[in-house]
Amino acid sequence: MELTTVIKRNEIYGRYLVAAKDLKPGELILKECPLQVGPQTQAMAMCFNCTLYMASERSCEVCGKALKCSVNCKGKLHTREECDTLSRMIIKSEDFLKAPQIILPLRCLLLKQYDAKKWAEFLELESHLKERKDSPIWFIHKEGVYDVLKKLNVDVDEELVQTICGILDVNSFEVRPLFAATTPQECLRGVYLKAALMAHDCTPNTHLSVDFTFEMTIRANRFIPAGETIFYNYANGLQGSAERRKHLHVGKYFDCTCKRCGDGTELQSFLSSLICTSCKSLISCAEPLKDIYSSDWICGKCSKTIKGNLVENTINHSKELINDYSNLQEAEGILEKLKVTLGPNHYIILELKQNMISLLGNYDGELEIKRKIALCEELISVLRLLDFGDISRHLGIALYELHKAKSQLVYEAYNCNLVDVCQYLEGLQEAQNILKESMKHLLYEPKCSPEGKLAQRAMNDLRVLRGTSSDLERILTLDCA
Ligand SMILES: C[S@@+](CC[C@H](N)C(=O)[O-])C[C@H]1O[C@@H](n2cnc3c(N)ncnc32)[C@H](O)[C@@H]1O
Prior knowledge:
- The protein has about 475 residues and is an alpha+beta fold.
- It has a domain at about 35-190.
- It contains 15 helices and 14 strands.
- The protein has helices spanning about 80-85, 95-100, 105-115, 115-125, 130, 135-150, 160-170, 240-250, 310-320, 330-340, 345-360, 365-385, 395-415, 420-440, 450-480, and strands spanning about 5-10, 15-20, 30, 35-40, 175, 190, 200, 205-210, 215-220, 230, 275, 280-285, 295-300, 305.
- The chain has a four-stranded antiparallel beta sheet with strand order 11-12-13-14.
- Strand 8 (about 205-210) and strand 9 form a beta hairpin.
- Helix 14 (about 420-440) runs antiparallel to helix 15.
- The longest helix is centred in the last third of the chain and has 31 residues, at about 450-480.
- The termini are far apart.
- About 35% of the residues are buried.
- The structure holds S-adenosylmethionine.
- S-adenosylmethionine binds near residues 12, 13, 126, 170 and 256.
- This is Protein msta-like.
- Pfam families: SET (PF00856).
Protein backbone atom coordinates (compact mmCIF):
# COMPACT_ATOMS: atom_id res chain seq x y z
CA MET A 1 0.00 0.00 0.00
CA GLU A 2 1.16 3.53 -0.78
CA LEU A 3 2.60 5.31 2.26
CA THR A 4 0.00 7.67 3.75
CA THR A 5 1.93 9.14 6.68
CA VAL A 6 5.43 9.87 7.84
CA ILE A 7 6.59 10.38 11.41
CA LYS A 8 8.12 13.75 12.23
CA ARG A 9 9.30 15.32 15.46
CA ASN A 10 9.28 18.90 16.74
CA GLU A 11 9.64 20.81 20.00
CA ILE A 12 5.90 21.24 20.52
CA TYR A 13 4.33 17.87 19.68
CA GLY A 14 7.26 15.48 20.17
CA ARG A 15 6.67 12.84 17.47
CA TYR A 16 3.69 13.36 15.20
CA LEU A 17 2.23 12.11 11.94
CA VAL A 18 2.18 14.05 8.69
CA ALA A 19 0.34 13.23 5.46
CA ALA A 20 2.81 11.68 2.99
CA LYS A 21 0.46 12.47 0.07
CA ASP A 22 -2.78 14.31 -0.64
CA LEU A 23 -5.60 12.51 1.17
CA LYS A 24 -9.19 12.67 -0.03
CA PRO A 25 -12.12 12.88 2.43
CA GLY A 26 -12.83 9.32 3.60
CA GLU A 27 -9.45 8.02 2.44
CA LEU A 28 -7.83 5.41 4.65
CA ILE A 29 -4.87 6.75 6.63
CA LEU A 30 -4.16 3.89 8.99
CA LYS A 31 -5.50 0.54 10.18
CA GLU A 32 -3.99 -0.78 13.40
CA CYS A 33 -4.56 -3.58 15.91
CA PRO A 34 -4.06 -2.72 19.58
CA LEU A 35 -0.81 -3.53 21.31
CA GLN A 36 -2.80 -4.20 24.47
CA VAL A 37 -6.34 -3.69 25.78
CA GLY A 38 -7.43 -3.50 29.41
CA PRO A 39 -9.78 -1.89 31.91
CA GLN A 40 -9.75 1.82 32.66
CA THR A 41 -8.09 2.84 35.96
CA GLN A 42 -11.38 2.80 37.86
CA ALA A 43 -12.94 -0.05 35.92
CA MET A 44 -14.01 -3.60 36.61
CA ALA A 45 -12.14 -6.81 35.82
CA MET A 46 -12.47 -8.34 32.37
CA CYS A 47 -11.78 -11.52 30.47
CA PHE A 48 -8.20 -11.23 29.15
CA ASN A 49 -9.29 -12.84 25.92
CA CYS A 50 -12.56 -11.19 24.88
CA THR A 51 -12.88 -8.33 27.45
CA LEU A 52 -16.21 -9.55 28.84
CA TYR A 53 -16.78 -7.97 32.24
CA MET A 54 -16.12 -10.58 34.98
CA ALA A 55 -17.46 -10.45 38.51
CA SER A 56 -16.36 -13.91 39.62
CA GLU A 57 -13.14 -15.84 39.26
CA ARG A 58 -12.59 -18.08 36.26
CA SER A 59 -9.13 -18.51 34.84
CA CYS A 60 -7.40 -19.55 31.66
CA GLU A 61 -7.20 -23.35 31.48
CA VAL A 62 -3.56 -23.15 30.31
CA CYS A 63 -1.80 -20.53 32.48
CA GLY A 64 -4.34 -20.60 35.31
CA LYS A 65 -3.58 -16.90 35.86
CA ALA A 66 -5.38 -14.77 33.28
CA LEU A 67 -9.10 -14.21 33.82
CA LYS A 68 -11.02 -16.00 31.08
CA CYS A 69 -14.79 -16.07 30.75
CA SER A 70 -15.08 -19.65 29.44
CA VAL A 71 -13.15 -22.47 27.79
CA ASN A 72 -15.00 -21.68 24.57
CA CYS A 73 -14.23 -17.94 24.71
CA LYS A 74 -13.87 -16.72 21.12
CA GLY A 75 -11.60 -13.76 21.94
CA LYS A 76 -8.04 -13.54 20.69
CA LEU A 77 -6.43 -11.01 23.01
CA HIS A 78 -4.86 -13.46 25.48
CA THR A 79 -1.97 -14.55 23.28
CA ARG A 80 0.16 -17.67 23.67
CA GLU A 81 3.15 -15.50 24.62
CA GLU A 82 1.19 -13.71 27.34
CA CYS A 83 -0.15 -17.04 28.56
CA ASP A 84 3.39 -18.55 28.78
CA THR A 85 4.77 -15.52 30.57
CA LEU A 86 1.92 -15.35 33.08
CA SER A 87 2.15 -19.07 33.78
CA ARG A 88 5.64 -18.55 35.22
CA MET A 89 4.48 -15.86 37.67
CA ILE A 90 3.27 -16.17 41.24
CA ILE A 91 0.27 -13.93 40.62
CA LYS A 92 -3.20 -15.57 40.83
CA SER A 93 -6.30 -14.88 38.78
CA GLU A 94 -8.18 -13.71 41.89
CA ASP A 95 -5.58 -10.91 42.25
CA PHE A 96 -6.89 -9.42 38.99
CA LEU A 97 -10.44 -9.54 40.29
CA LYS A 98 -9.43 -7.73 43.47
CA ALA A 99 -7.29 -5.12 41.67
CA PRO A 100 -8.45 -4.78 38.03
CA GLN A 101 -6.39 -1.58 37.69
CA ILE A 102 -3.19 -3.66 37.50
CA ILE A 103 -4.36 -5.64 34.44
CA LEU A 104 -3.37 -3.21 31.68
CA PRO A 105 -0.06 -2.00 33.21
CA LEU A 106 0.94 -5.62 33.86
CA ARG A 107 -0.04 -6.72 30.36
CA CYS A 108 2.26 -3.99 29.01
CA LEU A 109 5.07 -4.93 31.41
CA LEU A 110 4.90 -8.55 30.23
CA LEU A 111 5.90 -7.38 26.73
CA LYS A 112 9.37 -6.78 28.16
CA GLN A 113 9.72 -10.54 28.54
CA TYR A 114 8.24 -11.79 25.29
CA ASP A 115 8.43 -9.00 22.67
CA ALA A 116 11.48 -6.75 23.05
CA LYS A 117 10.72 -4.77 19.88
CA LYS A 118 7.16 -3.88 20.88
CA TRP A 119 8.30 -3.16 24.44
CA ALA A 120 10.90 -0.69 23.11
CA GLU A 121 8.28 0.99 20.88
CA PHE A 122 5.89 1.22 23.82
CA LEU A 123 8.56 2.84 26.00
CA GLU A 124 9.20 5.43 23.29
CA LEU A 125 5.70 6.87 23.82
CA GLU A 126 5.45 10.08 25.83
CA SER A 127 4.89 9.42 29.57
CA HIS A 128 5.26 12.98 30.96
CA LEU A 129 6.99 11.32 33.91
CA LYS A 130 8.62 14.57 35.12
CA GLU A 131 5.37 16.55 35.18
CA ARG A 132 3.56 13.71 36.93
CA LYS A 133 6.17 13.12 39.64
CA ASP A 134 4.56 13.48 43.10
CA SER A 135 1.29 14.78 41.64
CA PRO A 136 -2.03 13.27 42.83
CA ILE A 137 -2.11 10.81 39.90
CA TRP A 138 1.38 9.60 40.88
CA PHE A 139 0.10 8.58 44.31
CA ILE A 140 -3.03 6.97 42.87
CA HIS A 141 -0.84 4.73 40.68
CA LYS A 142 1.65 4.12 43.46
CA GLU A 143 -1.07 2.76 45.73
CA GLY A 144 -3.24 1.16 43.08
CA VAL A 145 -0.60 -0.37 40.82
CA TYR A 146 2.98 -0.30 42.14
CA ASP A 147 2.22 -1.30 45.76
CA VAL A 148 -0.13 -4.06 44.57
CA LEU A 149 2.40 -5.47 42.06
CA LYS A 150 5.11 -5.40 44.74
CA LYS A 151 2.87 -7.33 47.15
CA LEU A 152 2.29 -9.88 44.41
CA ASN A 153 6.07 -10.30 44.03
CA VAL A 154 6.22 -8.83 40.55
CA ASP A 155 9.83 -7.78 39.97
CA VAL A 156 9.56 -4.13 38.90
CA ASP A 157 10.75 -0.75 40.20
CA GLU A 158 8.45 2.14 40.92
CA GLU A 159 9.77 4.43 38.20
CA LEU A 160 9.03 1.83 35.53
CA VAL A 161 5.50 1.31 36.83
CA GLN A 162 4.94 5.09 36.84
CA THR A 163 6.35 5.29 33.30
CA ILE A 164 3.96 2.59 32.09
CA CYS A 165 1.01 4.25 33.84
CA GLY A 166 2.00 7.65 32.40
CA ILE A 167 2.23 6.20 28.88
CA LEU A 168 -1.20 4.61 29.32
CA ASP A 169 -2.81 7.80 30.66
CA VAL A 170 -1.32 10.01 27.94
CA ASN A 171 -1.60 7.71 24.94
CA SER A 172 -4.35 5.14 25.28
CA PHE A 173 -7.70 5.42 23.52
CA GLU A 174 -11.02 4.71 25.15
CA VAL A 175 -12.50 1.68 23.39
CA ARG A 176 -15.85 0.04 23.84
CA PRO A 177 -15.99 -3.60 24.92
CA LEU A 178 -17.47 -6.23 22.60
CA PHE A 179 -20.46 -6.36 24.88
CA ALA A 180 -22.08 -2.93 24.92
CA ALA A 181 -20.91 -1.08 28.00
CA THR A 182 -23.71 0.07 30.23
CA THR A 183 -21.59 1.87 32.81
CA PRO A 184 -18.38 3.89 32.50
CA GLN A 185 -16.69 1.19 34.63
CA GLU A 186 -17.14 -1.25 31.76
CA CYS A 187 -15.22 0.96 29.34
CA LEU A 188 -11.77 -0.14 28.27
CA ARG A 189 -8.62 1.45 27.01
CA GLY A 190 -6.41 0.30 24.21
CA VAL A 191 -2.82 1.13 23.28
CA TYR A 192 -2.16 1.73 19.57
CA LEU A 193 1.51 2.42 18.88
CA LYS A 194 1.11 4.34 15.64
CA ALA A 195 -2.28 6.00 16.17
CA ALA A 196 -0.94 7.37 19.47
CA LEU A 197 1.47 9.51 17.47
CA MET A 198 -1.34 11.70 16.11
CA ALA A 199 -1.11 15.21 17.54
CA HIS A 200 -4.19 16.89 18.95
CA ASP A 201 -6.35 19.62 17.43
CA CYS A 202 -9.89 20.64 18.50
CA THR A 203 -10.89 20.70 14.81
CA PRO A 204 -9.26 17.43 13.76
CA ASN A 205 -8.81 16.23 10.20
CA THR A 206 -9.43 12.55 10.95
CA HIS A 207 -12.29 10.21 11.69
CA LEU A 208 -11.48 7.34 13.99
CA SER A 209 -13.39 4.10 14.54
CA VAL A 210 -12.72 0.83 16.35
CA ASP A 211 -14.40 -2.44 15.35
CA PHE A 212 -15.36 -5.45 17.46
CA THR A 213 -11.85 -6.95 17.22
CA PHE A 214 -10.50 -3.60 18.46
CA GLU A 215 -8.93 -2.91 15.09
CA MET A 216 -8.72 0.86 14.70
CA THR A 217 -9.34 2.60 11.38
CA ILE A 218 -8.35 6.21 10.81
CA ARG A 219 -9.61 8.10 7.76
CA ALA A 220 -9.29 11.65 6.51
CA ASN A 221 -12.49 13.52 7.45
CA ARG A 222 -11.69 16.25 4.91
CA PHE A 223 -9.12 16.90 2.19
CA ILE A 224 -5.63 16.77 3.74
CA PRO A 225 -2.84 18.09 1.51
CA ALA A 226 0.52 16.29 1.54
CA GLY A 227 2.70 17.66 4.36
CA GLU A 228 -0.20 18.62 6.64
CA THR A 229 -0.17 17.31 10.22
CA ILE A 230 -2.62 14.51 10.96
CA PHE A 231 -4.77 15.60 13.90
CA TYR A 232 -7.11 13.80 16.22
CA ASN A 233 -9.22 15.45 18.93
CA TYR A 234 -8.11 14.08 22.32
CA ALA A 235 -10.97 15.96 23.98
CA ASN A 236 -14.76 15.97 23.53
CA GLY A 237 -15.52 18.28 20.59
CA LEU A 238 -18.98 19.04 21.96
CA GLN A 239 -17.56 20.59 25.11
CA GLY A 240 -16.64 24.23 25.48
CA SER A 241 -13.05 25.49 25.45
CA ALA A 242 -12.72 25.62 29.26
CA GLU A 243 -13.61 21.90 29.58
CA ARG A 244 -11.52 20.74 26.63
CA ARG A 245 -8.50 22.76 27.66
CA LYS A 246 -8.72 21.53 31.26
CA HIS A 247 -8.87 17.91 30.05
CA LEU A 248 -5.78 18.47 27.88
CA HIS A 249 -3.86 20.39 30.55
CA VAL A 250 -4.55 17.94 33.36
CA GLY A 251 -4.46 14.65 31.46
CA LYS A 252 -2.21 15.31 28.45
CA TYR A 253 0.10 18.00 29.87
CA PHE A 254 -0.17 20.70 27.22
CA ASP A 255 -2.16 23.85 26.50
CA CYS A 256 -3.86 23.67 23.14
CA THR A 257 -3.29 26.62 20.81
CA CYS A 258 -5.51 25.50 17.91
CA LYS A 259 -7.68 27.97 15.99
CA ARG A 260 -10.80 26.98 17.95
CA CYS A 261 -9.10 27.43 21.34
CA GLY A 262 -7.60 30.74 20.21
CA ASP A 263 -11.02 32.15 19.31
CA GLY A 264 -13.31 33.25 22.18
CA THR A 265 -16.34 32.64 19.94
CA GLU A 266 -15.10 29.09 19.12
CA LEU A 267 -15.26 29.62 15.34
CA GLN A 268 -18.41 31.76 15.55
CA SER A 269 -20.29 28.85 17.14
CA PHE A 270 -20.51 30.76 20.47
CA LEU A 271 -20.45 27.37 22.17
CA SER A 272 -19.26 28.84 25.49
CA SER A 273 -20.83 32.30 25.26
CA LEU A 274 -23.22 33.88 27.78
CA ILE A 275 -25.96 36.46 27.29
CA CYS A 276 -24.84 40.04 27.95
CA THR A 277 -26.96 41.47 30.76
CA SER A 278 -26.81 44.96 29.18
CA CYS A 279 -27.59 44.47 25.50
CA LYS A 280 -28.67 40.78 25.31
CA SER A 281 -25.98 40.06 22.74
CA LEU A 282 -23.26 37.48 23.51
CA ILE A 283 -20.21 37.71 25.74
CA SER A 284 -17.16 35.54 25.05
CA CYS A 285 -13.75 35.05 26.63
CA ALA A 286 -11.41 37.94 25.75
CA GLU A 287 -8.16 35.98 26.18
CA PRO A 288 -9.10 32.36 25.50
CA LEU A 289 -5.53 31.05 25.49
CA LYS A 290 -5.05 32.19 29.08
CA ASP A 291 -6.86 30.63 32.05
CA ILE A 292 -10.41 31.10 30.74
CA TYR A 293 -12.03 31.79 34.11
CA SER A 294 -9.30 34.20 35.25
CA SER A 295 -9.56 36.22 32.08
CA ASP A 296 -12.18 38.90 31.31
CA TRP A 297 -15.23 38.11 29.19
CA ILE A 298 -16.41 40.77 26.77
CA CYS A 299 -19.64 41.46 24.89
CA GLY A 300 -19.18 41.39 21.10
CA LYS A 301 -21.70 44.23 20.69
CA CYS A 302 -21.59 46.69 23.61
CA SER A 303 -18.11 45.69 24.93
CA LYS A 304 -19.42 45.24 28.48
CA THR A 305 -16.81 43.27 30.41
CA ILE A 306 -17.33 40.79 33.24
CA LYS A 307 -14.91 38.73 35.30
CA GLY A 308 -14.26 35.10 34.37
CA ASN A 309 -15.05 33.86 37.89
CA LEU A 310 -18.64 35.11 37.49
CA VAL A 311 -18.90 33.10 34.28
CA GLU A 312 -17.51 30.06 36.08
CA ASN A 313 -20.16 30.33 38.81
CA THR A 314 -22.90 30.53 36.18
CA ILE A 315 -21.51 27.47 34.39
CA ASN A 316 -21.27 25.43 37.60
CA HIS A 317 -24.84 26.33 38.54
CA SER A 318 -26.11 25.50 35.02
CA LYS A 319 -24.35 22.11 35.08
CA GLU A 320 -26.18 21.24 38.28
CA LEU A 321 -29.50 22.13 36.65
CA ILE A 322 -29.33 20.04 33.48
CA ASN A 323 -29.74 16.65 35.08
CA ASP A 324 -32.46 17.74 37.44
CA TYR A 325 -35.59 16.69 35.49
CA SER A 326 -37.68 13.57 35.19
CA ASN A 327 -39.86 14.38 32.18
CA LEU A 328 -39.99 16.47 29.05
CA GLN A 329 -41.99 19.29 30.57
CA GLU A 330 -39.43 19.76 33.34
CA ALA A 331 -36.61 19.65 30.77
CA GLU A 332 -38.36 22.45 28.80
CA GLY A 333 -38.56 24.46 32.04
CA ILE A 334 -34.83 24.05 32.66
CA LEU A 335 -34.06 24.99 29.05
CA GLU A 336 -36.03 28.24 29.47
CA LYS A 337 -34.12 28.99 32.69
CA LEU A 338 -30.75 28.33 31.06
CA LYS A 339 -31.58 30.53 28.09
CA VAL A 340 -31.72 33.57 30.39
CA THR A 341 -27.99 33.40 31.08
CA LEU A 342 -26.41 31.07 28.51
CA GLY A 343 -26.13 31.82 24.81
CA PRO A 344 -28.51 29.78 22.60
CA ASN A 345 -25.63 27.61 21.29
CA HIS A 346 -24.02 27.06 24.67
CA TYR A 347 -22.65 23.53 25.08
CA ILE A 348 -24.69 22.97 28.26
CA ILE A 349 -27.85 23.88 26.36
CA LEU A 350 -26.70 21.63 23.52
CA GLU A 351 -26.31 18.69 25.91
CA LEU A 352 -29.79 19.26 27.30
CA LYS A 353 -31.22 19.51 23.78
CA GLN A 354 -29.57 16.22 22.79
CA ASN A 355 -31.14 14.51 25.81
CA MET A 356 -34.52 16.07 24.96
CA ILE A 357 -34.25 14.79 21.37
CA SER A 358 -33.84 11.21 22.64
CA LEU A 359 -36.74 11.68 25.08
CA LEU A 360 -38.94 13.03 22.26
CA GLY A 361 -38.22 9.87 20.26
CA ASN A 362 -40.76 8.11 22.51
CA TYR A 363 -43.64 10.39 21.47
CA ASP A 364 -45.74 10.42 18.29
CA GLY A 365 -47.98 13.46 18.87
CA GLU A 366 -47.74 16.27 16.29
CA LEU A 367 -46.52 18.85 18.81
CA GLU A 368 -43.76 16.60 20.10
CA ILE A 369 -42.61 15.65 16.59
CA LYS A 370 -42.49 19.34 15.63
CA ARG A 371 -40.52 20.08 18.79
CA LYS A 372 -38.06 17.31 17.97
CA ILE A 373 -37.59 18.73 14.45
CA ALA A 374 -36.88 22.20 15.84
CA LEU A 375 -34.36 20.85 18.37
CA CYS A 376 -32.61 18.69 15.74
CA GLU A 377 -32.33 21.67 13.40
CA GLU A 378 -30.91 23.88 16.15
CA LEU A 379 -28.39 21.19 17.10
CA ILE A 380 -27.35 20.54 13.49
CA SER A 381 -26.79 24.23 12.80
CA VAL A 382 -24.32 24.42 15.71
CA LEU A 383 -22.60 21.16 14.75
CA ARG A 384 -22.02 22.53 11.25
CA LEU A 385 -20.31 25.61 12.72
CA LEU A 386 -17.92 23.47 14.75
CA ASP A 387 -16.15 22.29 11.61
CA PHE A 388 -16.24 18.54 12.20
CA GLY A 389 -15.34 17.89 8.55
CA ASP A 390 -17.12 15.77 5.94
CA ILE A 391 -17.42 12.73 8.21
CA SER A 392 -18.91 13.42 11.61
CA ARG A 393 -20.55 10.88 13.90
CA HIS A 394 -22.40 13.69 15.75
CA LEU A 395 -23.86 15.11 12.55
CA GLY A 396 -24.75 11.63 11.26
CA ILE A 397 -26.80 10.87 14.37
CA ALA A 398 -28.52 14.27 14.52
CA LEU A 399 -29.41 14.15 10.81
CA TYR A 400 -30.81 10.63 11.23
CA GLU A 401 -33.10 11.83 14.04
CA LEU A 402 -34.17 14.83 11.94
CA HIS A 403 -35.10 12.64 8.94
CA LYS A 404 -37.05 10.30 11.24
CA ALA A 405 -39.10 13.12 12.75
CA LYS A 406 -39.70 14.77 9.36
CA SER A 407 -40.93 11.57 7.72
CA GLN A 408 -43.07 10.74 10.77
CA LEU A 409 -44.69 14.19 10.66
CA VAL A 410 -45.58 14.11 6.98
CA TYR A 411 -46.83 10.51 7.26
CA GLU A 412 -49.19 11.43 10.12
CA ALA A 413 -50.37 14.52 8.20
CA TYR A 414 -51.12 12.43 5.09
CA ASN A 415 -52.97 9.82 7.15
CA CYS A 416 -55.14 12.56 8.66
CA ASN A 417 -55.80 14.07 5.19
CA LEU A 418 -53.97 17.26 6.14
CA VAL A 419 -51.69 17.08 3.10
CA ASP A 420 -52.26 15.70 -0.44
CA VAL A 421 -50.20 13.09 -2.28
CA CYS A 422 -47.98 15.74 -3.82
CA GLN A 423 -47.12 17.31 -0.46
CA TYR A 424 -46.61 13.86 1.07
CA LEU A 425 -44.16 13.00 -1.70
CA GLU A 426 -42.31 16.29 -1.25
CA GLY A 427 -42.04 15.65 2.50
CA LEU A 428 -40.67 12.15 1.93
CA GLN A 429 -38.14 13.43 -0.59
CA GLU A 430 -36.91 16.02 1.89
CA ALA A 431 -36.54 13.27 4.52
CA GLN A 432 -34.63 11.13 1.99
CA ASN A 433 -32.15 13.91 1.30
CA ILE A 434 -31.53 14.39 5.01
CA LEU A 435 -31.14 10.63 5.44
CA LYS A 436 -28.64 10.44 2.58
CA GLU A 437 -26.53 13.12 4.24
CA SER A 438 -26.73 11.26 7.54
CA MET A 439 -25.57 8.05 5.83
CA LYS A 440 -22.61 9.85 4.29
CA HIS A 441 -21.47 10.72 7.82
CA LEU A 442 -22.11 7.23 9.22
CA LEU A 443 -20.65 5.31 6.27
CA TYR A 444 -17.42 4.39 8.01
CA GLU A 445 -18.83 3.28 11.37
CA PRO A 446 -18.08 -0.37 12.22
CA LYS A 447 -21.20 -2.53 11.85
CA CYS A 448 -21.06 -3.72 15.47
CA SER A 449 -21.08 -0.21 16.98
CA PRO A 450 -24.27 1.68 17.89
CA GLU A 451 -23.51 4.16 15.07
CA GLY A 452 -22.86 1.29 12.63
CA LYS A 453 -26.21 -0.24 13.57
CA LEU A 454 -27.80 3.17 13.03
CA ALA A 455 -26.20 3.29 9.56
CA GLN A 456 -27.79 -0.08 8.75
CA ARG A 457 -31.16 1.13 10.01
CA ALA A 458 -30.70 4.23 7.83
CA MET A 459 -30.12 2.00 4.80
CA ASN A 460 -33.37 0.12 5.47
CA ASP A 461 -35.23 3.38 6.08
CA LEU A 462 -33.95 4.71 2.76
CA ARG A 463 -35.23 1.60 0.97
CA VAL A 464 -38.68 2.05 2.56
CA LEU A 465 -38.75 5.78 1.78
CA ARG A 466 -37.78 5.11 -1.85
CA GLY A 467 -40.46 2.41 -2.13
CA THR A 468 -43.19 4.67 -0.74
CA SER A 469 -42.04 7.56 -2.93
CA SER A 470 -42.21 5.36 -6.07
CA ASP A 471 -45.74 4.27 -5.12
CA LEU A 472 -46.77 7.89 -4.68
CA GLU A 473 -45.18 8.87 -8.00
CA ARG A 474 -47.18 6.09 -9.68
CA ILE A 475 -50.40 7.39 -8.09
CA LEU A 476 -49.59 10.90 -9.31
CA THR A 477 -48.84 9.68 -12.86
CA LEU A 478 -52.12 7.73 -12.94
CA ASP A 479 -53.97 10.82 -11.65
CA CYS A 480 -52.49 12.94 -14.45
CA ALA A 481 -53.34 10.28 -17.06
C1 LIG B 1 -0.69 10.79 22.50
S1 LIG B 1 0.84 11.58 22.72
C2 LIG B 1 1.35 11.87 21.09
C3 LIG B 1 2.67 11.21 20.83
C4 LIG B 1 3.83 11.96 21.40
N1 LIG B 1 4.03 13.18 20.67
C5 LIG B 1 5.09 11.11 21.36
O1 LIG B 1 6.12 11.57 20.88
O2 LIG B 1 5.07 9.99 21.90
C6 LIG B 1 0.29 13.08 23.36
C7 LIG B 1 1.36 14.07 23.66
O3 LIG B 1 1.84 14.72 22.49
C8 LIG B 1 2.00 16.11 22.71
N2 LIG B 1 1.00 16.86 21.92
C9 LIG B 1 0.06 16.32 21.10
N3 LIG B 1 -0.67 17.28 20.51
C10 LIG B 1 -0.22 18.45 20.97
C11 LIG B 1 -0.60 19.81 20.75
N4 LIG B 1 -1.59 20.16 19.93
N5 LIG B 1 0.11 20.77 21.39
C12 LIG B 1 1.11 20.45 22.23
N6 LIG B 1 1.51 19.18 22.50
C13 LIG B 1 0.85 18.19 21.87
C14 LIG B 1 1.78 16.32 24.19
O4 LIG B 1 2.99 16.17 24.85
C15 LIG B 1 0.85 15.17 24.53
O5 LIG B 1 0.88 14.82 25.88
